[in-house]
Amino acid sequence: MEETMIQEKGSTPVTAGAVFRTAGIVIGSAASFLVSSLIGGIICQKAGISGYAAQFTTGLVSLAFYIVILILLKKKCVLTTKGNGFFGGLLTGLFMVYSSVVALASELFVSTEGKTAKIVMPSELHFGSEQVWCILALFVAAGICEELLFRGIIFNVLRDLFGRSTVKGTVTAVFVSGILFGLYHFLNLTAGIGLDAVLPQVVSTAGLGIFLCAVYARWGNIWITVFLHALMDICVVLPGSMKNNENIVESISSNMSDPRKYIGFFIYAALAIYLLRKDKRPQMFTYSVSDDQ
């Protein structure tokens, strides 16, 4: 309680210059994703790389861009800060681990043909090089790159803007960056995915983004959210690749077109609010992600 009150007294007013600077960083970081995707696409086309291997290659290009941005922002220690630990953070995000395992089991062992769901033994599953590339691509492109972009860069610059040393500033940054994470998935429309799948994905991932930000704000270790994010995407996408050799576009189209996905926003947002409860808030001020400190 005392530490939180002290942090609040240290707040500083938000200036127009700071707002424009932060907006520039957020927009520039998002633009770097588009530029790196374009460069990665050209490389893959020239080299004849396709499928998940292409997504992995493009992810490496994006990763290079994000590391440069962190260096320019003097926040490269985001990559190495241990914060309040790793395994404690995993326990905090345990619901996401549970959801990932349930999603994997449901995709592999539950059939929804007809009006009732029933347990079935999977047949004709295939695990080869494409599935290995699937895992690697999702770990790099979704796990590492999206976490560096939205938690490592965008969340941290928003937290600097709203007040890194205050509860109000940190919580505001959690929710704003989480919503931006959801809106980012509108880009999937450009890949040919229908609005019936993209809209539920945008809403549900906004809640997921808020939850991941809350975990990161509490623990300060980016590799916790990298692991959680990669695990969820792999558990959701890999079964379709193993059963039907689905690519990422087909997987999103088949998995996200369920209107029940909207409920995910409320579940994850509620969990985030619980994670940021008063007695846990001092934990958000026990680490630094600035290279100057």
TrEMBL record:
GO biological process, one term: CAAX-box protein maturation
Domain CAAX prenyl protease 2/Lysostaphin resistance protein A-like: 130-234
Keyword Transmembrane helix in record: yes
Keyword annotations from UniProtKB, A to Z: Membrane, Transmembrane, Transmembrane helix
Keyword Membrane tagged: yes
GO molecular function annotations of the record: endopeptidase activity
A Pfam entry, by short name: Rce1-like
Chain ranges passing through the membrane: 20-43, 49-73, 85-110, 130-154, 166-186, 198-217, 222-242, 262-277
Protein name: Abortive infection protein
